[in-house]
From TrEMBL:
PANTHER family: ARSENATE REDUCTASE (PTHR30041), PROTEIN YFFB (PTHR30041:SF8)
One Pfam family named in its UniProt record: ArsC
Protein name: Spx/MgsR family transcriptional regulator
Taxonomy, superkingdom: Bacteria
NCBIfam families named among the record's database cross-references: arsC_related
Family named by the database record: Belongs to the ArsC family.
Amino acid sequence: MKVYGITNCDTVKKALTWLKDNGVEYEFHDFKKLGVSDEKLEEWDSKAGYEKFLNKNGLTWKQLDPAVKASITGKEPALQLLQQKTSMIKRPVIEDGGFLHFGFDPETYRQHFGK
C-alpha cells in the first residue's frame, strides 16, 4: 500500500496517524522530495478523472494568477499544472491494489481496511 503526500500537510498527518493507530503498513511517497511522474498522473486521471485530485480549495490554487486558473480548461493543462505544482494534488493519495482514494476520510478508510 502506498501513500502519496507531503509531510507538512495536516491532512496527511491525520491520515498517517490513523493508519499507524490501526496497524496498516504503508510506503510513503513524498511529493516534495520525489515529485510525481506524468505516468502516475495519467493513471490517476484514467481511474478517477483529474477533477477528483486537482485541489481547488487549497492555498496554492487560490494564489495562482487568474490567467493560469483560466488556462486550466481540460485534462492536459490540468495534469501539466499538477506536475509542476504537486502541492495542488488533493492529499493524501492512497493506492492499495485497485483502491484509489484522495483525501482523508476515516469512514472510507475503516470500510476499506476493515478496521
